[in-house]
Amino acid sequence: MSGPTGREPRRLTRWWRRRSLRTRMTVIAATAIAVSVFVAFQVASELLDGELRDSWKKQLRADSRVLAADAERAGLARVPLPSYPGSGRLVRVILPDGSTRTPAGQPALPPVSEQAARVARGAPADLMESSDSEEGYVVYTLRAGDGAVQVARLADDSPVNRFGFGMLLIGLCCVAGGALVGRTVARTGLAPIDRLTAAAVRVARTRDLDAGIPDEGGGEIRRLIQSMNDMLAALRDSRTAQRLLAEDAAHELKTPLTSLRLNVELLIRLDRRGTLDIALPAESRTRLLNDLGSQVAELSTLAAELTEVARGDVSDENTELLDLADVVVAAATRARSRMPDIEVALDVTSVWVSGRPAALQRAVLNLVDNAGKWSPADQPVQVRLRAERASAVLEVDDAGPGIDAADVPRVFDRFYRADSARALPGSGLGLSIVQRVVDAHGGRVTVARSARGGALLRVGLPAAAPPAVSRPGPGRDPGLG
Question: 481 in helix, strand or coil?
C-alpha cells in the first residue's frame, strides 16, 4: 500500500488533468516567469554581493597601504590615527609587544587573530579575513615597521537586501503580468478550438452532417479542422450507404415476402374451408410447397448476405497465414452439397496467403454459387488456383451465356442483377461480398469471358511466404470433378 507521500502526487495529477487547457497555459506561463525571475534574482544577487565585497577589499587594501606608509615614517606608537567618522572604516595598529592602538570613540574590533599576530611578528604576507563575531567585520592586516596595521569595515548586506526586495516586487509584477499574458495568449490561441468545439456540438445536437466546419487558421488548427470535415464526410457517406442499403434491402425483400405471404395465405384459406385436397391436387400441392421452400431458402440467403454486407469490414476473425488451396477445397465441398446437380472440377495448387479463412471461404463459395446458377447441368464449374509471380490467382468459370458487356461495370454493385438473371434465385449481393472481401485482403477481382463462352471471374491476392514446415497442397481433386 502506498502511503500519504504516494497519494499526494496522484491527487496533484488528477487536479491538473481536471483543469482546462486555458488554465494550464496560464499556470505554465506564470510559473515559467516566476522561475526565470527567481533564477535571475539569485544570479544577480550573487554577482552584486561579489562586486561589493571586491570593492570593499580594494578599498581596505588602499587604506591599509596609506596607514602603513605613515606608520613607517612616524612609528607605530606615534602615527596619528584618523578619527572615527561614526560609520564605515575602522583602523587599528598592532605594536611589537602585541598591544593595540585605536582611535578614540571607535567601536572595539574583534581580538587580534593568531594569523594577524603572525603577520605583525614578521610573517611575509598580508591577510584578508572575516571575523566570526556577531557584527561581521572584514579585516585587512598589513605588515608595517615592527608591527602591523589593520583596516576593517562591517560586512554590510543592506544593498543586497534592498536589491532583493526590489527584485521581489519586480518578480511579483512579472508573475502577475505573465499570468495575464498567458491568459490572453491562451484565449487568443484557443479561439479556433472553441469555435471548432461549438461547431462539433452543433453537429452533434442537430445531427446535420452536411454542415461542415469553416476552414480557418493555419498549421495544426487547419489540419484539425480538415480532419474533422473529413470525418463528417465519412460519416455522411456511411449514413447515405446505410440508407441506400435499407432501401435496397426493403425493395429486395418485398417480392419474396409478398410471394411467400400469398402462398401461405392461400394454404391457410383452403385449409379453413376444408377444400385443400379438392382445390390443390397432390401435384399442385407439392409444387406449391416446393415454391415455399425455395422462397424460404432465398430469404435465408438474402438475410445472411444482408448481414454480411451490413457488417462491412467489421469482423472478429483474426488474420492468419493459411493455404488458400484448403479454403478453395472447403468452399467447393459446400457448394457441391448445395448444388448436387452441378459438378465442381478443381485444379488447385498450394498457395499461401495472409487472410481471414471464413471470409475467404465465403467469397469462394459465392463465386462457385454464381457460376453454378449459369452452368449447364452437363458442364462442370471449373475452379483453378495457381501461383503467379507474387500473387495467388483463383479462376472460376462456367459454360453459361456469359456476362453482357453492358453489365460488366456494374456486376459487383450491391443488389444489381442483369435482366437475364432476374428469373433466377439470388439477391444480387454475392459478387458484391466477393469484391469487399478481396479488397479487404489487398487483392483484385475482375470479369472476363471464359474459353467455353461463359463468365470467367479471376481473383488475385498477394501471396505470402509459406511456413518453414508445411504439408503438400491438395493438388487436383478428382473426387469433385
Answer: coil
pLDDT of 385 higher than 90: yes
Q: Judging by DSSP bridges, how do beta strands 455-462 and 391-397 pair with one another? A: antiparallel
Are residues 286 and 174 both part of a single domain?
no
Q: What is the DSSP letter of 419?
A: G
**Helix axes 324-338 and 357-374, enclosed angle (nearest 10):** 40
Q: Which of 278-282, 372-376, 427-431 has the highest mean pLDDT?
A: 372-376
DSSP code of residue 463: B
Provide the CB-side half-sphere exposure for 241 (13 A, CA).
13
Contacts of 259 (CB under 8 A, 6+ apart): 291, 295
Query: Do residue 329 and residue 284 come from a single domain?
Result: no
| Structural domain includes residue 253 | no
Domain count for the chain = 3
Residue 137 in any domain: the answer is: yes
Q: Per this entry, what is the length of the chain?
A: 481
Which range of residues forms the domain containing residue 397? 320-480
Own/partner pairs, 403-407, CB within 8 angstroms, 24+ separation: 403/447, 403/449, 403/455
**414 versus 328: which is more confidently predicted?**
328
**Residue 344: φ, ψ to 5°:** -120, 110
Task: Indicate if the alpha-carbon torsion angle 313, 318, 319, 324 is positive or negative.
Answer: negative
Domain check: are 21 and 108 in the same one? yes
Cβ count near 205 (within 10 Å)? 8
Among the listed residues 267, 481, 298, the one whose alpha carbon sits nearest the alpha carbon of residue 382: 481
Q: Could you tell me the pTM of the whole model?
A: 0.46
What are the distances in angstroms from CA 101 to CA 80, 120, 122, 166?
10, 13, 18, 42
